[in-house]
Amino acid sequence: MWRYLVGALAAMLMMGAAALMMQGHAQSEVNVPPPPPPVQPVASATPDPLPSPPEATEKTREEKRFDRYDDDHDEWITQAELLKSRRKSFARLDKDGDGKLNFREWAHTTYDKFAKADADKSGRLSRTEFATTRRKRKPKKKPACACAKD
């Protein structure tokens, strides 16, 4: 029961604070001075310089992405154009060229990695053999500038 009383008291205090803030805000708006009149430009004796040529706009990321897929540059992307990169990847995996991927062709990387790591050709990997399958991480790039330290 006491929670309800505390909640009601908190709600009334918040409404009172809001009323005071609104009243103070309304009073401050009444005393605002009018804005100064706009300044008119002074006519100069020298003629205006020639306008600069318009700058070329940089293509957006989406425009560049669209252009990569639009091979014939007709402003339309066909299904064949969109699937072209996938077809290349598929053809790379389809070793026997039958137009179908069997499991071995699809997982060839894993098969090759296992065969390379299985040094004793036992058909299973020990801890030391498995450690050789670890992905090699690229080292972090150093900063571009060789700034002198103070």
From TrEMBL:
Keywords: Kinase, Signal, Transferase. One of its GO terms (molecular function) is kinase activity. The keyword Ribonucleoprotein does not apply. Residues 133-143 have a biased composition (Basic residues). Residues 81-116 form the EF-hand domain. Residues 1-26 form the signal peptide. This is Histidine kinase. Residues 56-71, 118-127 have a biased composition (Basic and acidic residues). Residues 28-71, 118-150 are annotated as: Disordered. It comes from the Bacteria.
